[in-house]
Design goal:
Layout (H helix, E strand, L loop, with lengths): L3 E3 L9 E4 L3 E10 L7 H10 L6 E13 L2 E10 L10 E5 L3 E7 L6 H16 L1 E3 L8 E6 L12 E9 L10 E4 L1
Antiparallel strand pairs: 1-2, 2-7, 3-5, 3-6, 4-5, 4-9, 6-11, 7-10, 8-10, 9-10
């Protein structure tokens, strides 16, 4: 990440802005409606039960989330090297460089919906930014679970990364290459 700044807002959220770098995220994917959102931890448990995966980069876990009218496609995974030999059930997503508003999430993962609500319904409208269009023009975000995240308490070191554009910028979709292994 090269550039970091802060931006004020009226919602109480205080994101930092960073120019992200390209990365390859690999892991397990599922589709979840609002009613099924509580099932996401089971997907994480399946991923973690697979043990160490060759080609993993760092100790941070990532979720790639594409939000749509019928729910969200949720890829739970981690960054991998481009030539990593991955399990057959893995899906990979090539995430290009992008500018993100990065929001810390305090508390248990079950309360993330409140942080998302504050980001998209309070901070974003007052911020001067728009969400950069993702795959097929549909908004997306990244969830980052850092090295201090505690899987037992399901809290600590969680961030939500939202790709943004200045409202005056031309909205060019951010394209992703998704591969089913």
């Amino acid at each position: 990440m090269s550039t970091t700044t802060s931006t004020p807002n009226t919602s109480g959220l205080q994101p930092r802005l960073e120019d992200g770098r390209p990365m390859r995220i690999a892991g397990l994917r599922g589709h979840y409606t609002r009613e099924q959102i509580d099932q996401i931890p089971e997907q994480w448990k399946r991923l973690i039960a697979m043990g160490e995966i060759p080609g993993r980069v760092g100790r941070v876990e990532w979720a790639f989330v594409v939000m749509g009218p019928n729910g969200a496609d949720y890829l739970s995974g981690f960054e991998v090297e481009s030539d990593a030999n991955l399990p057959a059930q893995f899906v990979t997503v090539e995430v290009p460089a992008h500018r993100c508003a990065i929001f810390p999430h305090e508390g248990h993962v079950s309360r993330m919906r409140f942080t998302f609500n504050a980001i998209f319904n309070e901070w974003l409208p007052a911020s001067g930014y728009t969400v950069a269009p993702g795959p097929n023009g549909i908004p997306f975000c990244l969830e980052r679970y850092g090295e201090k995240f505690d899987p037992q308490t399901k809290s600590g070191d969680i961030e939500i990364w939202v790709p943004v554009l200045d409202r005056n910028e031309r909205a060019t979709p951010i394209y992703f290459q998704e591969t089913n292994r």
